Amino acid sequence: MDGLIRVLEEKDFEAAADLASMAYPGMGIQSEEKKKEYEERLKREQREENGILFYGSFNAKEELVGIYRRSDFECNINGEFQRLFGIGMVAVHILHKKEKVAFELLNHFHQEARKENVALVALYPFSASFYRKMGYGYGPLKYEFRIKPGALNSNGQKDLVELLSPTDVEEITVLYNHFAQMHHGMIKRTWSERQHIKNAASRYVGVREDGKLIGALAFSLQPVKDSHFLHQNMMIHEWVWSSQKGFKQLEAWVHSQQDQVDRIIYGTNNPAFVYSLNNPPNDSNHLIPSVYHEVATTGSGLMYRISDIPLFFKQMHFQALRKPAGQPEIIVKVEDTFIEEQSGFYKLSFLGGEWDIEKVGENIGQVNIEIGIQDLSAWWMGCVSIKDLDSYGEVVVKGCSPEDLDDWFKPRKAPICMTNF
User: Fold this and answer.
1) Closest CA to 418 of 293, 297, 237, 279
2) Is 330 exposed, middle or buried (0-12, 13-18, 19+ CB in 10 A)?
3) Is the peptide bond before 290 cis (omega within 30 degrees of 0)?
4) How many CB atoms are closer than 10 A to CB 390?
5) Against a cut of 0.90, is the pTM above it?
6) For residue range 71-108, what is the model confidence (pLDDT) as tens digits?
């Protein structure tokens, strides 16, 4: 495709809103009034100091044929906040499909990340297979629990729970960012999330100790489909805490909603949540052979991609993991068919208590690991072990122990992410 990709200007947003309305009919912005509202929203998002930029692909006739939104985040990567670029709202004009517009948009996004020294990018896919071919690895799974309120424990002090208001946005943000600091994969509170709090898009309850917020939970009540007006479920949109007390008091409060709420619907990347429940089965009444009661539905969504292997390796803080005995050298062959300059051989060396990385030529000796960029991204982000990848034949490991490799390079916990983009 011959053309230009650049940041959208004010004059471009009318065409961008029209393009989005055709690409995403489910957004319900087909009417001129709705499109105008959406156009103003896009303009405002780009004007604010919020890390959001919209890019457009223009053909030789200077027609807008594709768009994407780039978000600049601060993400906890193995204990340290690093920049992460997220791509969203990828859309191609209905008259310009199969012209490699999406391919060029993704390529531009990756090159922008590399120019900005951003070593990791992420997205939520419309098709996991499509983006996996472009080098994205599966991120953490999400588990949606649909439990009775009584399934949660009541051994906290629910009377300490209070309603929060939009004026508490700064306090909620401080707590949220503290939670992000404690969990690999979490992204700091974004501008758009702060706007949702200010606009009371959902209700918040919280717990304070010595005047400081130690737990917060965002929720909404939703009518049960095809039932009467007294029958409702509670959707938990966000649940963060800085101490066990902060969790337990909110847990007791949710437990106490049994007279008004049928089911608690809560999505989390942490499967260990099931161990906080005294009766975890959901409402499916589904039995998995032989006798396993369904407790959650599981989804694959967020995907990660390393956009700069040496930079990511240096930023990853691997020295916080188990250090090897001696001074091992590991040769890794990486296949990256989308960012071709990343394909090749890398030598990982442990010297002076730290890991170092160097891209090397082919005549380096025995290759210890052969891996695609999508699996390397998932492994180094802690989503999967190389031992399992080796077991399923997705990688080749020679001359070293997969268990050691996981101890040296895989974060101890899988990532958690609550940010939509």
Assistant:
1) 237
2) buried
3) yes
4) 16
5) yes
6) 999 999 999 999 999 999 999 999 999 999 999 999 99
